[in-house]
Amino acid sequence: MQPRLAMLIDVSAVQEALREEGIDGWLLYDFHGSNPIARTVAGLDDRGGLTTRRWYYLIPAAGEPQALVHRIERNVLDHLPGRRRVYAGREQLEAGLAGMIGGGRLAMEYSPGGAIPYVSRVDAGTVDAVRRLGATVVSSGDLVQRFEAVWDEQALALHREASAALYRIKDRAFALIAARMKADAPVGEFEVQQAMCAWFEEEGLVSDSAPVVAAQENSGNPHYLPTAASSRAIGRDEVVLLDLWGKRNAAAAVFADITWVGYTGASVPERYVS
């Protein structure tokens, strides 16, 4: 399966959504990767676009989009439609932003009261600056849900592949523990975790963390990760928790995440069952 090409936002679809919601524009903003939502919507991540200066991209409810970019990164949004404004220095930045914003209701990656932190990506100072220019800033949460968070068929297929791989890894981990128990041989949390990491590579999965392998009292710690120093032996008649997540190494890939709990005895005690 080929990786998805850089996402080019459907401006006309966004404009239709803005009119439906009574919003005058969607103002995308990023500084040095501070707003991953804006970068994804603008197609920068898939293009490998490195940015170290502030950029803005305004999609109005009607009319031509506008971009505001720094002089040394003047081509960073060339793949998107619309007029370009270039700045160098704070005064030109403020003047360029004032030329783009004429009041009205603008959606940004902002969440009132920080209610949805995943959406709250624009810093308070930038929101203040936009408000000072006469705009009312509203949350882009519904727009993000519609245009950035919806999976396509490729993403769903990759998610299902990752999920199936995680289940195979989970089964192998429990089988490893069971085999050691039957052989009356020692086995520890860290050993099982490292075996699972190797199986991740075999399955073609990537993750931002090694899996959680937590025995008995450690299974009650939601942030526990075994290390060579902290790992404990997995004994008989103990609870063992496996928490693992990963995705295919592809641009459109979506994480899968599973958590399973096993017991190393012949039967599960009632206190755990209930």
Describe this structure in words.
There is one protein chain. With 274 residues, the chain is an alpha/beta fold. The protein folds into two domains: 137 residues, Creatine Amidinohydrolase, Chain A, domain 1, CATH 3.40.350; 121 residues, Alpha-Beta Complex (Creatine Amidinohydrolase). Helix content is 35%, strand content 20%. It is built from nine helices and ten strands. The chain has a six-stranded mixed beta sheet with strand order 4-3-2-1-5-6. A hairpin with a 5-residue loop joins strand 2 and strand 3. The longest helix has 30 residues. It is elongated, with a radius of gyration of 25 Å. 31% of the residues are buried.
Helices, strands, pairings?
Blueprint: H1 11-21, E1 25-30, H2 36-41, H3 44-47, E2 55-60, E3 66-70, E4 83-87, H4 90-100, E5 104-108, H5 124-132, E6 135-139, H6 141-147, H7 153-182, H8 189-203, E7 205-206, E8 212-215, E9 239-248, E10 256-263, H9 270-273
Parallel strand pairs: 1-5, 3-4, 5-6
Antiparallel strand pairs: 1-2, 2-3, 7-9, 8-9, 9-10
Helix pairs in contact: 7-8
